């Protein structure tokens, strides 16, 4: 197999929530592999900060502000990107939120917010980018799922439901759009150290100890741990892989 199979020169990738954490690392990794990156964010300041860091690293990126929970904004933003920058060859549905609390007392609004951001938004993003990809008979969609796509745990009922749904969205779109030469796959991160879990990583926090002892690799993952899989799923090396969810979790999911 030639290494050129993994190159992304000439490909344009849109990463939602690409200013920090996993999204930022994946965007940077895909840019380093040659892709032109479009970073989505909903806050101007964070977007500018991310773009400066790309520029300093000599990497090509543009930013687009929109909120992925708003169907109108998604539709307009995708149409603008296609017109102003060119075709979106690869979509990474990365942005996500989590709301924690026991199922019996979880606020209804928290449930709706998580389902909207973590499941409905990736569907809408895929729908509107997919329309262009179908026209071109080419495209790749990478959904950032979770170990919670597979496992249940205390106090994350909405998140688990959304990420389990995202796994099935991945499989369904893969089946429906494979005839159009579109591959839809997922990455299932284990516990990855990012701003989403800063509080839990403080030494002495029981959850920190639990995660390290429960993960067979014996450590938190880093956002960089996900980059190789993202490049693989974005590249021609994965052209005949469709509907799969690859866990990048230090062996966690298979150990249950
Ligand atoms: P972060 O909280 O660090 O980053 C999430 C990003 O999503 C932020 O940039 C945030 O922007 C953006 N975002 C949230 N809501 C919206 C919205 N409505 N519109 C646009 N952007 C939005 O999280 P991680 O990097 O840790 O997580 C990234 C993905 O990986 C998520 O889908 C998460 O569920 C998944 N994941 C993470 C794991 C982990 O251990 N870290 C484990 C398994 C899965 P803003 O600053 O505006 O809020």
TrEMBL record:
Alphabetical UniProt keywords: Oxidoreductase
4Fe-4S as UniProt keyword: no
Pfam families linked: adh_short
Record flagged with keyword Transport: no
Organism domain of life: Bacteria
MF terms in GO: oxidoreductase activity, acting on the CH-OH group of donors, NAD or NADP as acceptor
Coiled coil: none
Xref: CDD domains: Ga5DH-like_SDR_c (cd05347)
Family: Belongs to the short-chain dehydrogenases/reductases (SDR) family.
Protein's recorded name: Gluconate 5-dehydrogenase
